[in-house]
Amino acid sequence: QVTLRESGPALVKPTETLTLTCTVSGLSLGTIGSRVSWIRQPPGQALEWLAQIDWDDDKFYSTSLKTRLTISKDTSKNQVVLTMTNMDPVDTATYYCARMFVTGTTNWFDPWGPGTLVIVSS
Amino acid sequence: DIQMTQSPSSLSASVGDRVTITCRASQSITTYLNWYQRKPGKAPKLLIYSASTLQSGVPSRFSGSGSGTDFTLTISSLQPEDFATYYCQESYSPLYIFGQGTKVDIK
């Protein structure tokens, strides 16, 4: 059974850099086909996909946030790390990590972590 | 970018009701459409993928249909544990756009 859990600060100040960690169990991040995404949801707004990292270290980013995001993985710890620079109050959101499951030409996110709320405020 | 529009944004229903939620894409996404359920404080849960395929373990009262731009999630007989927020998501583009969500609460 694959499980994911997010961790990181609950509160960051404007202009600071946010670092979030996704700890994955039941799936080795080095296994061919392993893909993990970060997704966020600001209060009252839609879910927004942010970034993805694959088993072979291929990385993909939201076009609107690409300049602020870095995704990486530590295979020895089975963790995926997302950093977002220059945080702003509009970045206040619940941040989720999720496995992307791919079959044929289609894909979906399953499972997801429970999410971690990040508030950006001075 | 593809826009995903869900309707209604919220609805009130009673246990046993048949509930229908729609999701419209701004361009054809064939059947690259997934549905998720989210309960407060819980991880979102995949219900349906590829527009109409029920994820393993999901009750058969959930069903999905549609192709192209118009999709539907149906709960045939609403159960107490189904009160939640439902989201559609396109997997046609590499931006994986989600709908705004439909909150289903108790009437």
Description of the molecule:
The complex is a heterodimer of chains A (122) and B (107). Chain A has 122 residues and is mostly beta strands. Chain A has strands at residues 3-7, 11-12, 18-25, 35-41, 48-54, 59-61, 69-74, 79-84, 93-103, 106-112, 116-120. Chain A is built from no helices and eleven strands. In chain A, the strands form two sheets. In chain A, strands 2, 4, 5, 6, 9, 10 and 11 form a seven-stranded mixed β-sheet that branches. In chain A, strands 1-3-8-7 form a four-stranded antiparallel β-sheet, with no helix packed on it. Chain A is globular, with a radius of gyration of 14 Å. Chain A starts with a strand and ends with a strand. The model of chain A has no long low-confidence stretch (mean pLDDT 96). With 107 residues, chain B is mainly beta. Chain B has strands at residues 4-7, 10-13, 19-25, 33-38, 45-49, 53-54, 62-67, 70-75, 85-90, 102-106. In chain B, the strands form two sheets. A six-stranded mixed β-sheet of chain B has the order 2-10-9-4-5-6, with no helix packed on it. In chain B, β7 and β8 (70-75) form a beta hairpin. Chain B starts with a strand and ends with a strand. Classes of the chains: A mainly beta (122), B mainly beta (107). The interface between A and B is medium-sized, with 22 and 24 residues.
